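Project outcomes to date are best conveyed with an example. Our students and postdoctoral researchers have been running inverse folding experiments weekly, and each run begins with a structure described purely in tokens. The record below, which covers 600 residues, was selected by the lab manager from last quarter's runs and is presented without edits.
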């Protein structure tokens, strides 16, 4: 065996390799010394400046003890850190292909930029997608397709307890707080929303003066920190809330239970990003991190949550109140559903945030490994509401990597009522996906509180881009809806989309995803028995699972036998007819409704 494998402290027989290594390690430092000497001899000031800087940097590197690379490679070691800082940009612009999504592909970003700038978004020479790849999805166009004239698709949000329903677009700005985003970015987003007639979610950072400047419709998000309506101890202050919630600009109230980027974890706004304006807006002290608790103090169980949203509804003058969450333990959401049925009091809307979402910073473990993705989370919420017989009482929104007309159409086909986008609208105001949102060094002035950096974001021109992105995305959505042979996105159904499986087979989404039968949970007859089991575990008095009820249910199922046979084509399509000019008009996702009035 070679001596190098058996000797713990090998010594080289020759000094040459060591000397060569030393020369290579200190070559850049030596070059700086030579430049300085040459400058002194030739009396060239620029050589003296460059060489002097290099020598000073090299001396600092040799003397410091914090960075081993800089001590071993003085001056030259800094090249590594420079390349590391610019790695995301180098990857985006030089290495990644147009379809590589990390987290948004170049093609996705280019699509937003083109629509925001009102330039052509068409491509030539065929699709860049592999249309035969596993997971590829496509809409099934109709032979009786026709263009849609009214492309301003809207819905009404507000249930029987709501006194001020909100007429809103099917595509809106998702939650992003002032503090996370700059003042100029907030103003551009809100002015764009005002110009385009869609709605802007404030995020949990409260309503800032920049949200109010242009008067765009707002959804006020209320997080665990109750920013903008908190007392000195950080608890909810009803009087402070009521004073702000009755503002006509505030159209809806959204309780944030959790968010996609870091579900189950409170948010943190670093102290270096907190200005006096942010402190005043959020009602927090200066000089320390602004921390959102991981859970609410205004309620501790599902029944108290129902009482809380009713309190907010009354304090706001009857405006629509709902909640946003990234699904975690399913029985906890089902417990909320049981509590609302028990009280006969329903939220006006629910927004499902996918784990793939997130405009701010979050621990990698949370971004990658905690929380349910958007489609899975949405289907659980949708199926629970259908299975409990109350889907028609609550509107559902979704958010999570939605930037195109196809993204919106797909989620509405699965049963959503509207879609939100955060990062899509960030791209519209100039974001380049540098992924430096948490460092206060955003290069485009979007996600920074640095007054000099955010000055580069011109509010009037970026507001026009926000409005244009919204308008052109709805135009794209209208193209898909018209191609399918329909008149409004609400008519889209899961059988309008096909998906290729890993074995090459093709299935309609109505057969690929599970859709429960209406009211099936109430008598434990859901075809997927896991839904029955989770429903039994749900306890309206607590967010903890009722394991005793599950044990009793499973014993009863074994004793009596359980009918869980898969549905036949006849049962799945029992409501499908071909009477409307050859169009499929079934209601598999249980959201089909009369067309909105298009005369206005």
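After processing, the design step wrote out the following sequence:
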């Amino acid at each position: 065996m070679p001596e190098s494998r058996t000797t713990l402290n090998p010594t080289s027989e020759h000094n040459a390799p060591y000397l060569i290594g030393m020369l290579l390690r200190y070559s850049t430092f030596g070059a700086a010394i030579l430049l300085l000497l040459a400058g002194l001899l030739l009396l060239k000031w620029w050589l003296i400046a460059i060489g002097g800087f290099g020598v000073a940097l090299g001396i600092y590197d040799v003397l410091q003890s914090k960075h081993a690379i800089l001590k071993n490679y003085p001056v030259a070691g800094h090249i590594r850190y420079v390349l590391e800082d610019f790695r995301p940009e180098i990857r985006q612009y030089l290495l990644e292909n147009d379809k590589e999504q990390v987290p948004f592909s170049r093609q996705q970003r280019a699509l937003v930029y083109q629509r925001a700038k009102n330039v052509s978004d068409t491509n030539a020479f065929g699709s860049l997608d592999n249309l035969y790849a596993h997971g590829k999805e496509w809409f099934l166009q109709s032979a009786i397709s026709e263009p849609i004239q009214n492309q301003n698709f809207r819905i009404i949000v507000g249930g029987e307890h709501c006194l001020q329903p909100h007429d809103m677009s099917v595509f809106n700005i998702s939650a992003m707080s002032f503090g996370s985003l700059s003042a100029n970015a907030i103003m551009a987003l809100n002015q764009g929303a005002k110009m385009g007639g869609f709605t802007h979610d404030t995020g949990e950072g409260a309503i800032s003066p920049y949200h109010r400047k242009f008067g765009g419709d707002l959804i006020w998000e209320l997080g665990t920190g109750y920013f903008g309506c908190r007392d000195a101890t950080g608890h909810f202050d009803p009087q402070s809330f009521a004073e702000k919630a009755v503002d006509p600009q505030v159209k809806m109230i959204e309780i944030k239970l959790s968010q996609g980027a870091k579900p189950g974890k409170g948010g943190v706004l670093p102290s270096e990003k907190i200005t006096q304006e942010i402190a005043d807006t959020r009602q927090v002290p200066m000089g320390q991190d602004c921390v959102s608790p991981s859970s609410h103090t205004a309620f501790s169980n599902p029944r108290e949550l129902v009482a809380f949203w009713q309190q907010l509804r009354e304090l706001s003058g009857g405006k629509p109140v709902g909640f946003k969450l990234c699904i975690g333990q399913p029985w906890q959401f089902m417990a909320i559903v049981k509590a609302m049925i028990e009280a006969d009091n329903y939220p006006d809307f629910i927004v499902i945030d996918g784990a793939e979402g997130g405009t701010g910073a979050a621990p990698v473990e949370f971004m990658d490994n905690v929380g349910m993705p958007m489609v899975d989370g949405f289907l659980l919420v949708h199926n629970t509401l259908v299975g409990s017989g109350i889907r028609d009482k609550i509107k559902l929104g979704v958010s999570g990597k939605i930037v195109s007309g196809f993204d919106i159409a797909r989620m509405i086909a699965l049963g959503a009522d509207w879609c939100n986008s955060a990062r899509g609208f960030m791209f519209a105001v100039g974001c380049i996906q540098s992924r430096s949102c948490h460092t206060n060094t955003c290069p485009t002035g979007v996600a920074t509180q640095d007054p000099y950096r955010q000055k580069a974001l011109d509010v009037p021109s970026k507001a026009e881009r926000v409005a244009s992105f919204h308008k052109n995305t709805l135009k794209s959505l209208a193209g898909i809806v018209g191609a399918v042979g329909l008149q409004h996105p609400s008519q889209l159904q899961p059988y309008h989309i096909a998906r290729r499986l890993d074995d090459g087979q093709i299935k309609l989404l109505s057969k690929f995803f599970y859709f429960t039968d209406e009211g099936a949970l109430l008598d434990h007859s859901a075809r997927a028995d896991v839904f029955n089991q989770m429903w039994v575990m749900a306890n309206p008095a607590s967010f903890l699972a009722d394991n005793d009820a599950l044990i009793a249910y499973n014993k009863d199922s074994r004793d009596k036998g359980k009918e869980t046979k898969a549905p036949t084509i006849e049962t799945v399509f029992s409501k499908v007819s071909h009477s409307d000019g050859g169009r499929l008009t079934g209601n598999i996702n249980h959201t089909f409704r009369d067309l909105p009035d298009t005369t206005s």
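Confidence is low (pLDDT under 50) at residues 564-582. The two ends are 88 Å apart (CA to CA). The training component of this project remains on track.
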